[in-house]
Write a structure and sequence with these properties.
single chain, 378 residues, alpha+beta, two-stranded antiparallel sheet
Length: 378
C-alpha cells in the first residue's frame, strides 16, 4: 500500500502536464465543434468552458461569450442562451420571458435539424481532430509492418491446443487476409470468444486450424494489467519488419481507416462487455488515462499525439451513445421530436436527464474503481 502511494506521488508531477495537454486538446476541439455550429446557426453562446467547477481564468469576446478554463480538467461544456445548465437542458421559465429577438438566438427555438447539427458537431469535431493528427503522423512516420510469423506458442494455450507451431506464418483469420502481426491481437480481441479459422503457411504448405480464444489476465503494450481474448502466441523477433510511407492522399486514407477501426473496436468492445464476453476492467477513468498518458509521454511527443487521436475518437463516439446528458441523448430527443412533430414533454426530458446522470456517474465510479485496482490500492 505504501509503495503504491509513493509511486502514485512519483508519477503525478511528471504525468500531469502530459495529461492536461491531452485532455485539454480533446475537450477543446469537442466543444469547439458545438461552438462553431451554434455560431453558424445564429445561436448566442454564453460560456465556452474547458473543465468544470470554479473558473481559473477567462475572458469575454466581442460577442459576449465567456471563454474560461476551470479547475476540474475532465471535460467541458458550451452553454447557449436559453440553457438551464451546462447539460444544455432548456430553461423554459427563462424562455417564456424572452422577447422574440432573444428567442431567435436560443438553441431551443431553432429548427430541430439545426439543433441536431449543433449536438452532433462536437463528436464529429473529435473525429476530424483524430483524422488530421493521424494523417500528419502517417505522413511523417509511415507505418511499420511486422511479418505475421509465430515465434512462441504458450504451453497449454488455445493456439497450442489447435496445433499452431513456432515458425508458422499466419495468412488469414476467418477469411480476412493477414499481412501484419499487429492484426492478430486486433482481430482476436474482438472475437468474443468465438472459434476462429486461422490460415497458416507451414514449410510451404497451406493449412487451416480452428482456434477458440480465451479470456485471460495479461498485460497491455504499456505493461498495465488487463484481461482480453488471446490465443497464446508471440511474434518472431527475427521476422522482417518493413516501413510503408505515405503521401498526403495515402496518409489521409490510412487515417480514415484507422479512425474507423477505433470506432468499430469500441462498439464491438462495448457490446461484448454488455453480453459478458469481455471484462469491464478494460474501462479507464481519469486516473487511468492520466497514468497511461504519463507512460506514453515517456516514448516521446509523437506517440502522445497518437494517444490524443485515439482518445479523441473514443470520446467522440461515446458522446454519440443515446444516453440523456450526452450529445447522443440530445440527438435521441431530437429524433423523437422529428417523428412526433413536437418535443417530448418537460417531465419526460427531466426524467431522462436524471437517468442519464445516474448512468454517467455510475460509469465514472466503475472506471475510477478499475483505475485504483490497477494501482494495487485494493
Amino acid at each position: 500500500m505504501l509503495d503504491t502511494i509513493q509511486s502514485l506521488i512519483a508519477w503525478t508531477p511528471m504525468g500531469l502536464p502530459a495529461f492536461l495537454f491531452v485532455i485539454t486538446l480533446v475537450v477543446f476541439f469537442h466543444e469547439l465543434g458545438h461552438f462553431l455550429a451554434a455560431r453558424y446557426f445564429g445561436v448566442k453562446v454564453l460560456v465556452f468552458s474547458v473543465g468544470f467547477g470554479k473558473e481559473i481564468f477567462g475572458w469575454n469576446d466581442k460577442h459576449g461569450t465567456r471563454w474560461k478554463l476551470s479547475w476540474l480538467p475532465i471535460g467541458g461544456y458550451v452553454k447557449f442562451s436559453g440553457d438551464a445548465d451546462a447539460s444544455s437542458r432548456p430553461d423554459n421559465d427563462a424562455a417564456s420571458q424572452m422577447t422574440a429577438a432573444e428567442k431567435a438566438q436560443t438553441l431551443t427555438y431553432k429548427p430541430v435539424g439545426q439543433r441536431a447539427a449543433v449536438a452532433a458537431a462536437g463528436p464529429f469535431a473529435n473525429f476530424a481532430l483524430a483524422i488530421v493528427l493521424l494523417t500528419g503522423l502517417f505522413m511523417y512516420t509511415g507505418h511499420s509492418v511486422m511479418a505475421p510469423v509465430i515465434g512462441q506458442v504458450t504451453k497449454g494455450s488455445p493456439a497450442a491446443l489447435a496445433g499452431i507451431m513456432p515458425g508458422d506464418r499466419v495468412t488469414s483469420i476467418n477469411r480476412t487476409k493477414v499481412t501484419d502481426f499487429q492484426q492478430l491481437p486486433q482481430i482476436i480481441s474482438l472475437s468474443g470468444g468465438e472459434t476462429l479459422a486461422v490460415g497458416l503457411l507451414r514449410q510451404g504448405r497451406d493449412l487451416t486450424v480452428n482456434v477458440t480464444p480465451k479470456l485471460m489476465n495479461t498485460t497491455d503494450v504499456l505493461g498495465n494489467p488487463t484481461s482480453q481474448m488471446v490465443i497464446g502466441v508471440r511474434p518472431d523477433p527475427k521476422a522482417p519488419v518493413t516501413r510503408e510511407m505515405y503521401g498526403p492522399v495515402g496518409a489521409f486514407r490510412a487515417a480514415c481507416s484507422e479512425t474507423w477501426n477505433i470506432v468499430r473496436s469500441t462498439i464491438v468492445g462495448v457490446s461484448q462487455m454488455i453480453t459478458g464476453n469481455a471484462s469491464t476492467d478494460q474501462l479507464r477513468g481519469p486516473v487511468g488515462i492520466a497514468n497511461m498518458t504519463r507512460q506514453v509521454a515517456d516514448f516521446g511527443f509523437l506517440p502522445l499525439l497518437n494517444l490524443v487521436a485515439i482518445l479523441s475518437v473514443s470520446i467522440g463516439l461515446i458522446n454519440l451513445f443515446p444516453i440523456p446528458l450526452l450529445d447522443g441523448g440530445h440527438l435521441l430527443y431530437y429524433a423523437v421530436e422529428a417523428v412526433l412533430g413536437r418535443p417530448l414533454g418537460e417531465r419526460a426530458q427531466d426524467v431522462g436527464f436524471r437517468l442519464g446522470l445516474v448512468f454517467v456517474l455510475g460509469l465514472m465510479l466503475l472506471t475510477t474503481w478499475n483505475d485504483l485496482v490497477r494501482l494495487n490500492l485494493f
